[in-house]
Amino acid sequence: MHPPRRPHKPWLNLRCNTPSIRPFLHLSKVKEEQRQKEINSRVFQPEIAKTQEQHPSQSRQPTVPLLSKGVEDLYLLLAVAPPRRSPFSSAILAKTLPAGVKVSNLPKYDGTGDPQEHLDKFYAKIDWYDLSDAAYCKVFRTTLSKRALAWFNQLPIRTISSLEQLTQYFLHHFFMNKRVPRTAPFLFTIHQKENDPLRDYMQRFVEVVHEVPHVNHELLASIIQQNLSPGRFNESIAGKPPSIMEDLLMRSQKYIRIEEWNASNSSLSGKRKGQEEEKESKKKEERKHLPPTGFAYYTPLNASREEILVLAEQQGLISQWPTKMKYNPKRLKSNKYCRFHRDRGHMTKECHHLKNEIKKLI
């Protein structure tokens, strides 16, 4: 009697006809073990050698640690640096500068100045090169330093995908550093100080005017007239107010030249006056050391020297009149007059030459 036949199982034929995957699984496992050994020998060999030097009695067979499943541990085991972290998108990072293009002399921003001013300077430099927005983004990063660079590096990864987005983030973060423009009322505080030259005041005033947007030129004339010290330039503005700023500056140049010319002459006059006073002081000092001139004793008179001079002149007793005194510009302004010398500078009663002449007549 024959045994019962087993039911037909079609998957058995499939199993028999399909090549076995066990050899491939075994091969994959072998490759994985070889790769693990290679990693361990590359990463841990220096540490093993150091341990064997310190403990030669221990076995030279290293203990293979298990590979961590974490990505950071895998990079550590492979001794390979993780990919660079960047706020730029992959599309921006993939772009490169055209061959032969070298961007230099770009403005720098450390996070303390006006961000809009830095952007304007950056565009003024980079627009010459006609680059793509992605290149603009990568070049803009090179202009950042210190606080600004620290801000850029802490941006979330892959969050910047366009130049517009980058500039918006930049302006928004550093908006507190943005310079606030001056207003027209601030111009009323720019006064000309005492002894402040007109040139210095006009330069200071014009610098502030450039910081005031859309200022009325007719208003500038009234502001300057109010802030100027009394003088010819102020009177000129009051007589004919300038209609534009250029007219105001041109007219100020005339009075600046006049003021500086007068100051130069005053300086020269003061220098000459100082030299003359120094010269006169030296002469007085020299006279102190000269031997006394004239007589040691003078007879008391019963009349004044002026009266005696008149009588002596009428009677022809004076044989020789004194020589003319040396020129001295101070004497021209003196109210003192000597009839004996017939010149200004001292009184007749104070004249030493007349005193000696009268002594001779006696």
From TrEMBL:
InterPro entries the record matches: Retrotrans_gag_dom (IPR005162)
Residue numbers spanned by region Disordered: 32-62, 266-295
Feature: compositional bias, Basic and acidic residues: 273-289
Segments forming domain Retrotransposon gag: 138-218
Highest taxon of source: Eukaryota
Protein name: Retrotransposon gag domain-containing protein
Classification lineage: Eukaryota, Viridiplantae, Streptophyta, Embryophyta, Tracheophyta
